[in-house]
From TrEMBL, chain A:
GO biological process: defense response; superoxide anion generation
Keyword field contains rRNA processing: no
Record's GO cellular component terms: NADPH oxidase complex
Spans traversing the lipid bilayer: 12-31, 51-72, 100-121, 170-194, 206-230, 271-290
GO molecular function annotations of the record: metal ion binding; superoxide-generating NAD(P)H oxidase activity
Catalytic activity: NADPH + 2 O2 = 2 superoxide + NADP(+) + H(+)
Keyword set, alphabetical order: Heme, Iron, Membrane, Metal-binding, Oxidoreductase, Transmembrane, Transmembrane helix
Domain FAD-binding FR-type, chain residue ranges per copy: 279-394
CDD domains (alphabetical): NOX_Duox_like_FAD_NADP
Name by which UniProt lists this protein: FAD-binding FR-type domain-containing protein
A Pfam family recorded for this sequence: NAD_binding_6
Membrane topology: Multi-pass membrane protein
Chain coiled-coil ranges: none
From TrEMBL, chain B:
Bias (Basic and acidic residues): 137-146, 161-170
Annotated region described as Disordered, given as residue ranges: 137-184
GO molecular function: heme binding; metal ion binding; oxidoreductase activity
Organism per entry: Zoarces viviparus (Viviparous eelpout)
Descriptive protein name: Cytochrome b-245 light chain
Source organism superkingdom: Eukaryota
Subcellular location: Cell membrane
Function noted in UniProt: Subunit of NADPH oxidase complexes that is required for the NADPH oxidase activity that generates, in various cell types, superoxide from molecular oxygen utilizing NADPH as an electron donor. Subunit of the phagocyte NADPH oxidase complex that mediates the transfer of electrons from cytosolic NADPH to O2 to produce the superoxide anion (O2(-)). In the activated complex, electrons are first transferred from NADPH to flavin adenine dinucleotide (FAD) and subsequently transferred via two heme molecules to molecular oxygen, producing superoxide through an outer-sphere reaction.
Entry annotated with the keyword Thylakoid: no
Length: 567, 184
């Protein structure tokens, strides 16, 4: 329970606050239109559908303001940098930006549906009232003339010439609010259907390009409120008291106490909400462009087996931390696509590097281009944006660390292990780690031979310094078959592992965590052990349970802390 | 953008359109709008489109992700054979279904969304895509009698005992070639 609060408490708090603001806005704007006198006559025709349309509109204003902010990644990096004082938990919230963006998007979709249905009712009832379907008061209100310069009418549907069934459609498509409403709702629907997980994961380009319809969405949104369609009663001289005059509509303008009531609409107000984030987002895109124009030089280009490309790059003023990622853009392949890659170099090195695996159109083309380059020449122009992501400095704080990397999740650990080794060599006081247990779990080692090479190098260096037990690593191949097993059995006498070439033998199948935790506990009595995972959520559950199980309340014995990392 | 199966996006769009058409129809009928008959049609059309589009197609390349509980729908849709397999049919069907939605405001949005889905399906059809049902893999039942081969009747060929005895004084002469190759 305590673990849950530490890992999720701040997130839950932020969500509760956000939901609270949504509910408050809904209720507040609902009562603004449902109670006051100036909307009495409007409500006579529209009922509570008026309030039901305006309340979600307020929630929509709020959420459309919020939705642009989590995707300003450079702004978030700025915030992250300035939060150095405020604790890691706060900064980790900034890593959940995409989840928040999606949540806000769902709220926008829901509120759009409510808003649209309410306005369907409004338009239909205004039309009926104009046609005289309702009571005398309603017809009288709808018949109010549109006399310039003040536009004193109440019912925005002014024509009766068109077929009654088509009038609502005609009205919607000939008014600014209606037309922009339809266009932006359509844009929203296209954005949502192309953002479904199936599409996003398979065809990122469709998702990314369709998502740019948000430009149309925001332009339409800002114009949407123009047209003075929602109208309230103005005070006249002499005043028109609706309580008195509502039953004497035939005499309006003829008796002194009931002059013709005057109505007016309010100006568009959405731009107050969204102009700030729109400007911030424009700055964000400009900054990405500037970053893209900055010179990036290639220090080294290496083709690893299994189509893994390693790029070592240098850029002026680039500073990274362990576990962060960058976005790369290669105009020779695609002008508009930026792809994220976790950095595999350590901050102590004078370059930053990524390992790129063949995983789709863009990466395949990049590997192709690099393979055709002559020896020693610079690669194609590359734009780099970043670094992003909360650094995982906690790794250095624990005396004993258990690092678990599953599949592609092993990539940030390349950076971490290298950094730990550099810090150890120069006896960096920030490094409190004395022992590391590294568990590498993958289906097959294809595409990770470069990581095995790194482990080999570390293994060699540690032996030279007589520190062979600083790092204990175990590789688990979960995708073994009979052929594998036979091969290993035949070579079981050799000193190095036949699959990886490492001194540590490869294990097959998943780790038996109970055994592992027992071993760590026995070898490190009275230590605080930090467990870090980069891998599937299922494994996170298993590990956090084991950490709780093997931790001892007694402070003299071993304690395990599970850190849920989201590299 | 070479490897896109447009049908996947068309499917999402069509399912969403079905829901929007359905919602618009329900509002139109429940609030008794003018032209509520079109709304009633929209309810039926929306429900039909949802049922047709709910089962996802099997992807030509890559793993297909099923929607929850789509198996019964897959069986129903599959039973129409070429009518549901061919995306040209679907494109024209959706285009035809969406037209009556344009006659009433409540269903206009559903009409336009379904029209867009129809266009994306047309693009998919032109690219040669078609609908494949996702069916559970059938268990390959192996007949046990096939895999158990008869044990060998004869012993392996060996040279006579004198040559087989270990001749430590003449190791070179002791080596012999196996007439039948040993190994995989």
């Amino acid at each position: 329970m305590g673990n849950w609060i530490i890992n999720n408490g701040l997130t839950s708090f932020i969500l509760v606050v956000w939901m609270g603001i949504n509910i408050f806005l809904f209720a507040w704007y609902y009562q603004i239109y449902d109670l006051p006198d100036e909307y009495f006559y409007t409500r006579h025709i529209l009922g509570s559908a008026l309030a039901w349309a305006r309340a979600p509109a307020a929630v929509l204003n709020f959420n459309c303001m919020l939705i642009l902010l989590p995707v300003c990644r450079n702004l978030l990096s700025l915030l992250r940098g300035s939060f150095v004082c405020c604790g890691r938990t706060m900064r980790k919230q900034l890593d959940k930006n995409l989840s928040f963006h999606k949540l806000v998007a769902y709220m926008i979709a829901l509120m759009t549906a409510v808003h649209m249905i309410a306005h369907l009712l409004n338009v239909e009832w205004y039309n009926n009232s104009r046609r005289g379907d309702y009571d005398g008061l309603s017809t009288a209100l709808s018949n109010l003339e549109d006399s310039a310069p003040n536009f004193t009418y109440l019912n925005p549907i002014r024509t009766t010439d068109i077929d009654a069934q088509q009038t609502p459609t005609y009205f919607v498509f000939t008014s600014i609010a209606g037309l922009t409403g339809v266009i932006i709702t359509l844009a929203l629907i296209l954005i949502i259907t192309s953002s479904m997980e199936v599409i996003r994961r398979s065809y990122f380009e469709v998702f990314w390009y369709t998502h740019h319809l948000f430009v149309i969405f925001f332009i339409g949104l800002v114009i949407h409120g123009a047209g003075f369609i929602v109208r309230k009663q103005e005070t006249t001289k002499p005043p028109h008291n609706f309580a008195l005059c509502k039953d004497r509509y035939e005499e309006w303008g003829q008796i002194p106490e009931c002059p013709v009531p005057q109505f007016s609409g309010g100006p568009a107000k959405t731009w107050w909400w969204v102009i700030g984030p729109m400007i911030l987002y424009i700055c964000e895109r400009v900054l990405r462009f500037i970053r893209y124009m900055q010179a990036v030089t290639y220090r080294k280009i290496v083709m690893h087996p299994s189509k893994v490309l390693e790029l070592q790059l240098m850029k002026n003023g680039f500073k990274m931390e362990v576990g962060q990622y960058v976005f790369l853009n290669c105009p020779a392949i695609s002008q508009l696509e930026w792809h994220p890659f976790t950095m595999t170099s350590a901050p102590e090195e004078d370059f930053f590097g990524v390992h790129i695996r063949s995983a789709g159109d863009w990466t395949d083309k990049l590997i192709d281009i690099m393979q055709q380059l002559p020896e020693g020449s610079q690669g194609p122009k590359m734009g780099v944006d970043g670094p992003f992501g909360t650094a995982s400095e906690d790794v250095f704080d624990y005396e004993v660390s258990m690092l678990v990397g599953a599949g592609i999740g092993v990539t940030p650990f390349a950076s971490i292990l290298k950094s730990i080794w550099y810090k150890f060599k120069i006896s960096n006081p920030k490094l409190r780690t004395r022992k590391i247990y590294f568990y590498w779990i993958c289906r097959e080692t294809h595409a990770f031979e470069w990581f095995a090479d790194l482990l080999q190098v570390l293994e060699r260096e540690m032996e030279e310094r007589g520190m062979a037990d600083f790092l204990t690593y175990k590789l688990y191949l979960t995708g073994w078959d009979q052929g594998h097993a036979t091969h290993v059995w035949l070579h079981s006498d050799e000193a190095t592992d036949v699959v990886t070439g490492l001194k540590q033998k490869t294990h097959y199948g998943r780790p038996a965590w109970d055994k592992e935790f027992e071993q760590v506990r026995n070898e490190n009595p009275a230590s605080v052990v930090g467990t870090f995972l980069c891998g599937p959520a299922v494994l996170a559950k298993v590990l956090s349970k084991k950490c709780a199980k093997y931790s001892d309340v007694d402070p003299r014995k071993t304690k395990f802390y599970f850190n849920k990392e989201n590299f | 953008m070479g490897k896109i199966e447009w049908a996947m996006w068309a499917n999402e769009q069509a399912l969403a359109s079905g829901l929007i058409l359905l919602t618009g129809g329900i509002v139109g009928v429940a609030a008794q709008f003018r032209g509520w008959q079109f709304a009633a049609y929209a309810i039926a059309a929306g429900a039909f489109v949802c049922l047709l589009e709910y089962p996802r197609s099997k992807r030509a390349k890559g793993t297909s992700v099923e929607r929850t509980g789509q198996y019964c729908f897959t069986v129903c849709v599959k039973s129409f054979g070429p009518l549901t397999r061919n995306y040209y049919v679907r494109a024209f069907l959706h285009a035809a279904i969406c037209v009556p939605g344009g006659f009433m405001l409540a269903t206009v949005l559903g009409c336009v969304c379904l029209g867009i889905a129809s266009l994306i399906y047309l693009a998919a059809a032109i690219r040669g895509e078609h609908w494949e049902p996702i069916l559970p893999k059938k268990e390959v039942t192996r007949k046990p009698t096939d895999t158990i081969k008869n044990p060998p009747q004869n012993p392996p060929p060996r040279p006579p005992p004198e040559t087989r005895r270990k001749r430590v004084d003449d190791l070179e002469g002791a080596a012999y070639d196996n007439p039948i190759p040993v190994g995989e």
